[in-house]
Amino acid sequence: MHRMRALSCFVTCFAAALLFSNNGSGDDIAERARKLHFSSLVLDTHDDTTQRFFSKDYDLGKRNPDGHVDIPRMREGGINAIFFSTWIDGRTLGPSAVQKAMDQIDAVHENVGKYSKDLVLARTAEEVRRARAQGKIAVLMGLEGGHMIGLDIRVLRMFGALGVRYMTLTHFYNNEWADSSTDKPAHNGLTDFGKAVVREMNRQGILVDISHVSDKTFYDALEVSKAPLIASHSSCRSISNHPDQMINDLAAKGGVIQINYEKSFLDQAYNDAYDKAVGGVTAMDNSIIKMCGDDTECASRETAKRERLLTEQGKLPHVSWERIVEHIDHVVKLVGPDHVGLGSDFDGASMPDGMEDCSKLPKITEALLRKGYSEDNIRKILGLNLLRVMEQAERVAHEVQVGK
Ligand SMILES: [Zn+2]
What we know:
single chain; alpha/beta; 6-stranded parallel sheet; 3-stranded parallel sheet; 16 helices; binds zinc ion
């Protein structure tokens, strides 16, 4: 299935590449795309930039020579809203997980304060729209892994009060109450406590994020949640071995899948080669943690270095940014244009050729336009779909709180 799809995309992408080269960048479509992109609300649901805030070599306000995200490059890429993700290793549990998550949430608040001319914290869809009207970038927060609530539902509430707007139920490992897709099943999906977590998320208007979770966890969450679910940074293959069925079920309840740009998620051949070269994503993760410990700058440097080396040795194939468009198109063909968006995984994943950082984002708009997408549908994909889900979650929270 995947190989056939990849082949047909190759033909389409090749045709698109010819169009690009024939017309140059000054043609009508390029100009329309530019106008459309910079007048749209462009929202990215997953960026691991938060961990860079702790490095003395990184400055969110300046153009950095490495990494994928900073204010100048967000401006260049036309990003109006960004979810900075809080992430710590999934094997850190209890109070220490809570403390480390708090450190990162604080760092987001501090950076928003420091760069308040450009950034403003947003908690609701309305606040995202308002930020855009003021010419500011809305900063939202996501928590990548339920292990960070330390098995205490009151902590989840406090995170919500501090502005966390989605929580990924698990990361690479199972936590005390939910199974991950990259661990051996231990709870058969969500435990009773896990279901209570989902209900509390509904009550707080925190989006339930099913990126990284096992299939059973996904279906349990889908059943329990009164609000639509999101996959904050998944691609068509990465959420499951039966991705199309899950995308159908996610969409049927109004949810969205936000496409991840990680090469191994975009391209099956790359993924297989990567598994062969390093022994799978958790093996790579373990070896990097052994070397770098808590130093995430070291981890991302080391990951990039190893990957560059493997690509130079011909052990990993090149992957083009056009694969992102292919994945978006696949979801649209499956469930229509209302259930897909952008969840790059910038600063947390290795980017395909041509999507070196967030300044390259307008290329996606142009490619969709060239594929014949309507401007309305492109605006939905760029950000309005996710805002719609936020509004629905806010309505559910209100209804639950007033006891409807
Ligand atoms: Zn992730």
